Amino acid sequence: MKKIKLGFAPTRRSIFSAPDAIKYRNLTAERLDELDIDYVDITDINSEGLLYDDNDIDRIVEKFKREKADGLMLPHCNFGTEYLCARLAKRLNVPVLLWGPLDERPEPNGVRLRDTQCGLFATGKVLRRFKVPFTYMTNCRLDDPVFERGVRDFLAVCNVVKTFRNIRILQISTRPFDFWSTMCNEGELLEKFNIQLAPIPMTELVEEMESVKDDGVADLQKMISYINETMIVQIKENEVETVAALALAIKRLIKKYGCKAGAIQCWNALQSEIGIMPCAANAILNEQGIPIVCETDIHGAITALIAEAAAMNEMRGFFADWTIRHPDIENGELLQHCGPWPVSVAKEKPALTYPLAFDHPGSITAEAKHGELTLCRFDGDNGEYSLLLGNAKGVDGPKGMGTYLWIETDNIKRLEAKIVEGPYIHHCVGIHKNVVPVLYEACKYIGVKSDLYDPIEEDIKAYLRGE
Asked: Which of 127, 245, 392, 450 is the most exposed place for a label (fewest CB within 10 A)?
């Protein structure tokens, strides 16, 4: 599991009980320790380890930045000091988790020690004034299941934001001429989101493959063994070697250019150069957590990165075409691609073979596992970007070619209209986990509009509230 570090800045206000605030600061820290949450606190900033003094802000900011905190947690341990919370959050520019422990019964004489809920109302208002987006976790007790769930979901949100803000994609050649749908605006992605591309020509990839064969013989043999162990090989030995060399070459180039994912012009120039399809090589790297997508679909690579980040990089996603309606299920659809899906997604051992509609070897064929799914797509038209997202489930259907999965949605006609009317295309990313609430919440931090293809926004908000 990828570690995300929280800046832990519990807060109090002077008119309520300082001892009780310290008590809840300590109880909250103990609970985070129990949950194995990585955090950095402010116990060295002042003796209470609490945010209440404006003079502490500079040192807290410096410490949290030095420790590379990915998110800010603001437990309100009594009322809380709302303007200090907002000042700190504004300067850190990371996702913010606003929460406070449920208040106890008032004392017999009517005295209240904390008044936490009221403080949360105040801080929410001031954060909005500062234009600081934040995530609210409902006022609850530390042992309430919603506390653990809320914190872990927030860590996943932080992981999406951290991933999105640090994207560099290896672009292997231009998009195929016929695929106008996969064009992207490189300058706009950089200006809006700091998403960087590292474009290389096809010849550089071919040269890197030759280098692998010359100086990476041990790695090449290891990769060939991996292919033979994890796939049913139905192509020639020399073609298997080419698949292995391609996977290693792309991985080398990913490392050389400091990239997290890649997008490749998978046809037709590549086949003229090396004689195979890149699908199986893509599948191998996808399994290693390096998404490589087809048809130079840069937006698809972005989608793959954030989908896996929403699942804390604990499972692999798969890059798919929306293709045809299910012949028997009213709201069914076929997700399919030539063969680039990671082996862990398959419900059966994949065959390394020839793809649908192409004459060159190098793709895999396997049906994907069924179960719950999140389907999503980052895309944009005319300077406006959004994230299409929603749920589906895997279902039975006719045998397919390549990597494929029949899925069922709540309303395929509504989804179909969303894709056609845009800004989306025929590509999406699926992952075997419900990460819709995490992606929905992350959108507020990354400047992308969330676009649910089913009318479930109130259900998501209720989940995020802890209902």
From this structure: 450
Q: What is the pLDDT of residue 79?
A: 86
CA atoms of 44 and 61, how far apart (whole Å)? 13
Cα atoms in the 13 Å half-sphere on the side-chain side of 42? 32
Please write the tens of the pLDDT for every residue from 23-71.
Answer: 999 999 999 999 999 999 999 999 999 999 999 999 999 999 999 999 9
SS3 327: coil
Point out which residues pair with 395 in neighbouring strands: 406
| 8 A C-beta contact, residue 278 and residue 206 | no
Positive or negative: CA dihedral 336, 342, 347, 352? positive
pLDDT digits (tens, 9 = 90+) for 85-140: 999 999 999 999 999 998 877 778 876 767 888 999 999 999 999 999 999 999 99
Separation in Å, CA 191 to CA 186, 195, 383, 386: 9, 8, 11, 16
According to CATH, the superfamily of the domain at 168-465 is: L-fucose Isomerase; Chain A, domain 2 (3.40.275.10)
Domain residue spans of the chain: 5-164, 168-465
Top-confidence residue, 359 or 161: 161
Peptide bond into 423 cis (omega under 30): yes
DSSP string across 258-294: T-SEEEE--SSHHHHHHSS-SHHHHHHHHHTT--EES
CB 333 within 8 A of CB 323: yes
Residues with Cβ within 8 Å of 452's Cβ and at least 6 positions away in sequence, in order, are 389, 390, 436, 440, 460
Helix then strand then coil, % of the chain, to nearest 5: 40, 20, 35
Extract the tokens encoding 433: 């986990």
CA distances from 466 to 193, 202, 384, 454, 462 (A): 31, 50, 31, 21, 6
Picking from 323, 317, 307, the residue whose alpha carbon sits closest to that of residue 341 is 317
5-164: CATH topology is Rossmann fold (3.40.50)
Query: What Cα–Cα distance (Å) separates residue 117 from each residue in 46, 71, 124, 235?
Result: 25, 22, 11, 65
